[in-house]
Design brief:
Layout: E1 2-7, H1 19-22, H2 27-35, E2 46-51, H3 55-67, E3 72-76, H4 85-94, E4 98-102, E5 124-127, H5 132-142
Parallel strand pairs: 1-2, 1-3, 3-4, 4-5
Helix pairs in contact: 3-4
Protein name: 3-dehydroquinate dehydratase
GO molecular function: 3-dehydroquinate dehydratase activity
Organism: Fusobacterium pseudoperiodonticum
Length: about 150
């Protein structure tokens, strides 16, 4: 199974930015955590991890997931979650099950974060569970989608 994990703006700054919200783990720590989570070894999951600070590049990554026949996408679009019709449209265009993930609880933060432009295009949203949210998204894509 091929799963693309796309992280948007400022996620490369994990471990540096707002540690009280995002914790002390780095972006590299996050990728390693996801890839080496204990149950994945027996599931034969091929992960691709991508990060960009540019909206159009996220759209390009989503298109790449389609052309390279990925089975699922885990997406943390960062601040673009709240503003990007282009990313919303790209998720819908590729028709690949996409789970939106946020490390912090966006619904308990600033008012503008409660508006999610990308969520309606996704099969679900996991928010506020830290890096475990990514793992739960992968579990959904590998287990629950089969039912």
């Amino acid at each position: 199974m091929k799963i693309m994990v796309i992280n948007g703006p400022n996620l490369n700054m994990l471990g540096i930015r707002e540690k009280n919200i995002y914790g002390t783990f780095t972006y590299e720590d996050l990728c390693k955590y996801i890839e080496t989570y204990p149950n994945y070894k027996e599931k034969d999951i091929d992960f691709t991890f991508l990060q960009t600070n540019h909206e159009g590049e996220i759209v390009d990554y989503l298109h790449k997931a389609y052309t390279e026949k990925y089975d699922g996408i885990v997406l943390n679009a960062g601040g673009y979650t709240h503003t990007s019709v282009a990313i919303h449209d790209a998720i819908k265009a590729v028709s690949i099950p996409t789970v939106e993930v946020h490390i912090s609880n966006i619904h308990a933060r600033e008012e503008f974060r409660k508006n999610c432009m990308t969520s309606p295009a996704c099969v679900g949203q996991i928010t506020g569970l830290g890096k475990l949210g990514y793992v739960l998204a992968v579990v959904y894509l590998t287990e629950e989608r089969k039912k």
